[in-house]
Specification:
It contains 3 helices and 4 strands, in the order βαββααβ. The chain is α/β, with parallel strands linked by helices.
Length: 73
């Protein structure tokens, strides 16, 4: 199973990345995504994040976490 954390920057992606690492997942924070080496991906660049439909098709059991924040804060 692959897990993709998608959303804008400053939405807690580092904290989520650390959480998944502590739970024993192979988690990667940054870009480019190495889809063969890791199971959890966060804080990728916009070209990778925008491929969520492709990731959903390629990895049938994939999960997505959408992080949002208030634009004014």
């Amino acid at each position: 199973m692959k897990i993709f954390v998608i959303g804008f920057n400053k939405t807690g992606s580092t904290t989520i990345h650390e959480y998944f690492k502590q739970q024993g997942f192979k988690s990667f924070h940054g870009s480019p995504f190495d889809l063969d080496k890791y199971d959890v991906f966060s804080d990728g660049n916009i070209s990778q994040i925008s491929k969520f439909k492709y990731f959903d098709q390629k990895f049938k059991d994939s999960k997505f976490i959408l992080n949002v924040r208030d634009f004014r804060s």
